[in-house]
Amino acid sequence: MKNSLAAVAAVAAVAVLACAAPARSADAPQVPYPDAYRDWRHVKTMVIQAGHPLHESFGGIHHVYANRKALDGYRTGKFPDGSVIVLDLLEAPAADSGITEGARKLAGVMHKDARKYATTGGWGYEAFGAGDRNKRMVGANAATACHACHVAQKDHGYVFSTTRD
């Protein structure tokens, strides 16, 4: 039950993140696009189907990926600088009693750098629309669009997801 509540909270956080206005600020540090993240460790997958409260905006397949440093954080509960976690949201077309991966809707990114992102618990947040490294959807709104929800997971390094055994 705890994991399913955390999953719903994580999806809610992504919903807020992706709906945020793309504000820009010259002072706000930008989160880099994580090249080749699909080659990283796959942490978990979930599917938001019709009937879920977030389906209209965030229905689809959610894959979570972590780089090596983030994997250390999942194991210890303390995510070191350089940790990167990606939530890859894909369309989920259903046909012939199956669900397949469709087009990418967005790539949500958390990048740990305690100094650079000090105002948001050491994490930088960004959502790249449809996997386009130039289409930033969060910008300077990270504190309200993302981190405000992640504060609920402070005891787990501000991260909602957990690894499977």
TrEMBL record:
Residues 1-20 form the signal peptide. Gene3D superfamilies: Cytochrome P460. InterPro entries: Cytochrome_P460, Cytochrome_P460_sp. Keywords: Signal. Coiled coil: none annotated. Residues 34-161 form the Cytochrome P460 domain. This is Cytochrome P460 domain-containing protein.
